[in-house]
Design a protein that fits this description.
single chain; 88 residues; 0% strand; elongated
């Protein structure tokens, strides 16, 4: 889990850097094509972070059982709901 968290934080920091780069591109009047390419790259990166978070959350919630060896159905429903909301 800690390794996954570090990877997610690194990806978010990379995205933050890309956003700052786009801000600079706008200030420098770069072409719309160049800016939109960078925005598409950020969108893809954000989706990858979201999927990584969903995967980590799903593993934690769906694979861990309680003291009776059962998975909490409400936790599974929450993971499914998160996945549906993310995929909209």
């Amino acid at each position: 889990m800690e390794d996954s968290k570090k990877k997610i934080i690194n990806r978010l920091r990379t995205i933050k850097g890309h956003i700052a780069g786009i801000e600079k591109m706008v200030e420098e009047n770069k072409s719309c094509d160049e800016i939109l390419i960078q925005i598409a790259a950020i969108r893809s990166s954000v989706n990858k972070v979201g999927l990584a978070i969903l995967e980590s959350n799903a593993e934690t919630c769906m694979l861990e059982s309680d003291e009776n060896g059962k998975v909490n159905q409400e936790d599974v429903r929450k993971v499914i709901k998160s996945f549906v909301n993310f995929s909209k």
